[in-house]
Every structure is written in structure tokens, then in C-alpha cells.
Amino acid sequence: MTKAAHRIDLRDHVGTALRALAAGERVKVDGAEVVLRDAIPHGHKFAVNSVAPGDPVLKFGFPIGVAIQPIAPGDHVHTHNVATALKGQGEYTYTKTPSSRSGEVQEAPTFTGYLRDDGRAATRNEIWVLPSVGCVGRTAHKIAAAAHARHGGRVDGVYAFTHPFGCSQLGDDLHATRDMIAALASHPNAGGVLLVGLGCENNQLDGLLAAIPSERHARIRHVAAQFADDEIAAGLAAIDELVAIAAQAKREPLPLSKLVVGVKCGGSDGFSGLTANPLVGRIADAVTQAGGSAVLTEIPEIFGAEQMLMDRAADERVFTGIVDLVNGFKAYFTSHGEPVSENPSPGNIAGGITTLEEKSLGAVQKGGHATVTDVLRYGERLRRTGLTLLEAPGNDAVSSTALSAAGATVILFTTGRGTPLGFPVPTVKIASNHDLAARKPGWIDFDAGAVLDQGLDATTQALLTRIAQIASGAPTAAERNEEREIALWKRGVTL
């Protein structure tokens, strides 16, 4: 008989329904039998133990909120009887916990990538067209489309990544836009970059070029539309030069240590913390143990689980960086009059996630058990191997763009509800459940529901193999669907 429910930790007060369960149904959990008092939707929780009002409710072995009414075994446990316990900024203590392995990888696959002059490895060899300002976004698209048609087969593609900013911005807000575009222009997957400016914008091309490392300038060209007789022709001529340089690169076998994986979740459900996120955590561990890099972001979606990451800080400097990042993000919310717990989304709740604590405890599993070696601010680029924590909000497009700009060469994107979005680097969509994978094969690259059937070890090996194929050039679903875009985080005033 198919298993009906799963309890993650023996301390947990709840089990998760692996299928829709009927009221009155008898369900076995860890050898005990629970008679359900309510119908339990697929992916939702039911009580295994009684919980009194005001007491914490445990899942993953940690509190996911407090009971706001008596909860008896067999009750549906959700927003009607559990509330968040999150408040504002927290006080944290540095207590280093040794990192642990989450499981051994039987075989660490190689991939065939492009080794750049600076030692970084690329998973694609593309030409990127980046506008300095939203006014020339359509111009950038026209140049990229014409160049893509002209140079098909010589490089892996020519793509424009547009945004509405770059003018009417001030101070740190303008600098963040500049830094993000400069970081994207520095990405190893960009074998060449065309910067397209207007001419009168705040985000001037000379300042943008100055923010890009000088060693990258040989692979960068720029056009200011106001000063070109024909900006499209000028852009195409510049890309002709870039393609001549980029086309010299050839794929070669590279070790797993050369991979930089960004980890992200979006449209999560009650299975995300059971299957897809711990599976991606295994990949993060495999890559970092091999000497590579993993990048974790979505800072508001670690609220309630931040101490787990702080305890894995490599040193007190990194610990302080995590504290500042978390408390700074909480202050960002409260300064706008918003609670820090205004999450999960309606889709998350429909999928079985009750509080932000529950969402966060599931989400941080994407970082595996690796030591946190560095903390980056928004727009900064990867500096160290190991697990890096990156400043960005939970918004899928903004945080995935930040992962790309930081240097991720593959993004592992887990989802329980599904999304078609794709980003500058190959974005691997990992379904948390069989149903989503079956309903949306055009969106999904891997079915993590296999974790419940085959176990984490076998599924980890299968996903590693799939990642190696994609890093070697196999297109993701998003790439096949031409879903590639960026979104920038605007925090300042607009003039």
C-alpha cells in the first residue's frame, strides 16, 4: 500500500499528507495510528500529537508557529489554528556548529564547459546585450534578434536582457542598477557583451564601464543611441566583432568544482521542504565538497530559520555579516510599516504552507549542510568557494537575477506550483511533486517527487547527471521556451 503520510522529524507535532486524505481515515505515522478528524488536502499537515494554545507547533524539528486554539491528533493543521511567532529584529549569538555531510555522492560527474582566461568556467558561450537605461530596451531587443539570426551556430545565442531603470534614480538606488548591469557584463557565460546606452541617462556608459573589471573590456563594446547615425547598424557591427572573439571558445571537460550553482525556490508547496529543497541541498553539498560554489538568497525566506545558517558561519566575520543582512532586511520591512512575516503567498498557503517559519525551514534546506563562507550584498560578485549567502528579496525574478549577477552558472529552481520564468543562466526547474511534473512537462526539467519513491541518494545522483547535461549545453525547458529575462530591485525614489 502506498505510504499516506510522512513525518520529517520524530519531534514533529505534524505529518504531511502524501495524497488527499479523508476525514475518518486511519493513517500510520512512525508506527502509530492517527484517525483523521478532518479531510486533509494533498501536501497539507495534520496533527500527530496534541498541542495546547500558545504552545509551539513543531515541523522539521523546529517551531513553525504557535497554536492559536487547541489542536488534537487528526486535526488539519493550517492557518486557522496556527499563527506566526515572528517579530522584528532579533538578537543572535555566535555558536559555531561544525558542518556535516548530508550524504555521499557515488560519482561526481564532469561537464563540458568553457574555461575562461580568468579560470572561471562558463556553461554557455553567449553574447549579451545590456541596456544602460530602459529607454533603449526595445533597441537592445532589435539588435539581439537580428544578431541572433545572423550568427546562429557560431555562439550559443545572442540575447538582450532589458529593464525599465537607469534614469530618474539617485544615490544608492542608481548605484545598485549600475552594479547589477556591471556584474552581468562580467559573467563568464557572456562570451561578449554589448552595452547599449541612450546618451542622456543618469546611468552613463562611462560610469558603467568603470564598474566592470578592466580585464573584461576586451569582450565589451558599447553604443550610445543618441550619438549613432544608425544605432541598430552600429550595434550589429559591434556584435560582429564580439562573435569573432567568442566563437574561438570550445567546450572541454571540467570537474564539478568549476560549477557555481545558485539555489532558489518559487511557488513552493507542502512538498518543497520534503523533496525538492533537501534534494537541492544535497547538490549544494556535492558541489561545495568538490571545491565549487553554491549561492543561497531570498533573505526574507530564511526568517525563522536564520540561526541554522548563523551556526554554520565559517567565522565570526561571516556570522556578523549574516546578522546584519537579516536584521537589515527586517528593518527594511518595518520601516515601510510592513510586518516581517507577510509571507507565504496565497499559492504557498493553498499548497499547504502555513507560516513564514515553515516556509523558511523548508527553504534553507537548499543550502545543504555546507559551511557559510561569505556574505554578499546585492550586486556583488562571488568571492569565495563554499556556500555564499546573497542579499536579495524573495521575488523570483529579482533574486534569480541577483544570483546570475553574482556569478551562478546554473540556477536550481524548486517549485511546487510551477512557473515558466527563466533567467540569464540556465534555470533548472525542479518539481516538488509528481503531479506538477506530469501536468507541466513544458516547464519542468526534473521531478523531485522521486525522493519519496527512490530515496535521496538515488535521486541526488540522477539530478547531478541532469545538471551535468545542462551545464554541457542541453537546453532547459525555460531556454526552449525562450523564457529569459532580468528584474532589478528598485528601493529609492523616482525623480
UniProtKB/TrEMBL annotation:
Biological processes per GO annotation: D-galacturonate catabolic process
CDD domains, A to Z: SAF_AH_GD (cd11613)
Keyword list, A-Z: Hydrolase, Lyase
Taxonomic superkingdom: Bacteria
InterPro entries given in the database record: GD_AH_C, GD_AH_second, SAF, SAF_UxaA/GarD, UxaA_altronate/galactarate_dh
GO MF annotation: an example: altronate dehydratase activity
Assigned EC number: 4.2.1.7
Hydrolase as UniProt keyword: yes
Residue intervals of the SAF domain: 12-83
Family of the protein in this entry: Belongs to the UxaA family.
Protein's name according to its UniProt entry: Altronate hydrolase
Taxonomic lineage: Bacteria, Pseudomonadati, Pseudomonadota, Alphaproteobacteria, Sphingomonadales
